[in-house]
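During the reporting period the student researcher (J.K.) took over the structure-prediction task from the postdoctoral fellow and processed the backlog of single-chain submissions. One of the processed entries is reproduced below for the supervisory committee.
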Amino acid sequence: MKKLFILTAALTCVATASAQAPRDSLLHEEIQEVVVKGVRAQKNAPFAVANIRKQELQQFGKSGQELPFLFARTPGILAWSENGMGTGTTYMRIRGAAGSRINVTLDGVALNSPEDQTVFWANMNSYAALLGSVQIQRGVGASTNGDGAFGGAVSLATAAPSQVASLELTGSYGSYNTYNLGLSFSSGMLGNHWIFNGAYHETATDGFLHGTSGRSGSYFGGLTYYADRLTLSYKNIGNFEKTGQAWNGVTAGNDDATLMGDDIRTYKDMYRHGLGRFNSLYERLVFDEDNWSFPQDAGGNFITRRYTMQDGSLWRKTTDNFYQNHNILSAVWRPGTRWTHNAALHYTYGYGYYSEFRPDNKFSKFGLTAADAAGNNIKRTDFVRKKGLAQHTYGLVYNLNYSDELMEVLGGVNLQQFRGSHFGYLTYVKDKGQTRNFTGLQYYDSDARKDDYSAFVKGTLHAGSSLDFFADIQYRHVAYKTNGINDKFIEQPDGTYRNQQLDIDADYNFVNPKAGITFHSGGHKAYASAAYASREPERNNFTDNGNYPAPDAEHLLDFELGYDYTGSNWTVGFNLYYMDYKDQLVQTGEQSDIGEDLTTNIDKSFRMGVELSASWSPLAWITLEGNAALSRNKVKDFTEYIDDWDNPRPKDYDFKTQSAPSNPNWKPTTAHYDRSVLAFSPSTILNGVIDFHHRGFQAVWHTNFVSRQYLDNTADKLRSLPCFSQSNLHLGYTAKTTRRTLGIKEVALGLDLNNLFSRRYAASGWVYSAVSAKNKYTPDNRYYQIGFIPMAGFTCMTNLTLRF
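J.K. obtained the following structure tokens:
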């Protein structure tokens, strides 16, 4: 399942030291810092971090794009979206690690899906407008709540409410009928104690790829009470989305002599002619048999034909449909001058589904057999399947903080339980004369539970005014169980199919220590740290491991060494890292039939590199910024299990025992690698920014570069994505009004020009490869298919914002 519908209720009680608590904006910001303190690196912590301010978030929130595209302006982050527009289903990687390896929290509460261990940035496009700050930590970092950070952590904090009554209306419109609408307000301080604030934002688009139109958005409501020693707050944050899907991307292969269904045959031709807007979840490619080619229109896009239903109507599109809602109730109490208490009680309910057209599929794919009136077997027909989930997550988060001139100590617990179910129905089966109507059949059903309990203590010792020592230790216990029948079917020796039976009962106990030292004086800061982290496999690692054995937990030892200097008008910094993995779960380049990346454990692997950043403001009205992430990402010891058409896996092969009763001597076809390159791990990511700002006018130029990405772990250039670079330009003007017509205090105009030079590129993809001696395919010269996830060419978005 690709999405999560979440309802989170959190109760946060905080006490902090202050004889008096003035109700001002600074106090509000301090309260938000208290809420997220357990998951954020503090000012002089020995970790690599990037902080994004409220002003940047609010400006980006009008673009309609998902937050990962803003994060990608910081070192070592890559973002892309399925529809090519930056809206809808969006993904990100930090230091080459995918979403399930990135810890994400919202106001200190874990946001990752408990089973998938990722955040699906598909219905969170408007979060930028709701947030007050974001901190991105690279590496293991300082986060303590939720899943282990194996690439990085992202801490989201909602904005503190304004004490001044205000209203903001914003509207944007641009390419491919993309629009973004927003409203936010604050009541200001009522009765010297209360503030009521809220917001609503939504985005819709036709999408660049065919069939990826969709609508998504978010809403927020908050009520806050302030007293001298007590602050109470209730927050409700919800999201919704119905977006067209394109997880297959645009496909290509290496066999010029053989047609592969509806696939394009050479990926070099794809890049030469343009990746196009073809979406195999929505349409078929038209094939010209006379010229033995796939014709293109004048714009270089491949000509397609929509799928049709039995009654002749057109299949609309494959859609994801999800809604999520978060409720947070918090309290801040100030009993003394040194202590802070922070507790959170949360509950999550989730429900969502997607519907997908499956043309000319085998009945056996759904564990079925069909026959006509004469008793003849019917092998194939068209299906529409509906796959969904329901989930409950609840738990407790508690933090206790002590600080004085000599030290700061923070301890806490995170207790969370998850209960969920997965289900699938056939909502349409084309009638090909079969005697049984399968429409409405439920073809899989499974239940799952996950208990996640952890405790930590971390402390900073101030050894004089310039030297800090940091230490942190966490204990985490995870228990995961799932049972029932899955949506995969295994062929039996007699030729029939049965559901994959789920009977997973796994327990994990992790101890994760961290330690570091920081020197800071004047504008100088130097630091070093070592951190150990562990994490359990996600659900798909168990259910979709393909040819590979059952997954193991993975472990990481992360070393960081950095230096920053802040001068009067310039900054410079670097961070060296070495991340040594044991049993790292890495992407193989293959995907499940719904576009989820398949993974396997690699015994020994590492990521190492340097992250550079610099900024310079030679004049008050111009700033030059740049960052670079240069890395080596290697497999030390990896055995690849290769699909061999001449040596198929026996139908009764048992992955647990790695044997087959029908052929006890069968061995899989494998290849071993000692020093290869990890998949989806570009060695170079560069960002350059020129920010011109004078009075109310602003112009921001952003150019990025991403080097070659290999789609599997073999470092074969034929199965890779070429490097790419593209540039964006933001123009904005803000004017304060003097006459206050209709109560308007400020008017802001904006224009975003993306991919200015209309570069054709794919930011991600997938690969399938196989060998066959009979067909002259060898491990070094394989048959392969590649799926490209293309991004749109030049697009623009205009914006008008009114503030009252």
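The committee noted the following: Residues 7-248+325-416+463-803 form a domain with the Maltoporin; Chain A fold (CATH 2.40.170.20).
J.K. will present the remaining backlog at the next meeting.
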